[in-house]
Design brief:
2 helices; mainly alpha; about 0% strand
């Protein structure tokens, strides 16, 4: 697929505030699940899950 990057993208946007993709609580729960996966599957996807959990945790504000 080819996209023309020379044209401006225009549109209308709502003035209402946008909701976060995940709440802090949901993000922390997802991190806990990823850390559990890391412990349960050390030879498969565990290390990747642990790295993703660490990356996400660094993006969250401190409680």
């Amino acid at each position: 697929m080819h996209y023309d990057t020379t044209e401006l993208v225009v549109g209308t946007y709502l003035d209402e505030p946008r909701l976060a993709l995940l709440t802090d609580t949901e993000a922390r729960e997802a991190i806990e699940c990823l850390q559990l996966l890391e412990r349960l599957d050390p030879d498969g996807r565990g290390p990747a899950a642990g790295q993703l959990a660490a990356d996400l945790a660094r993006r969250l504000p401190t409680p």
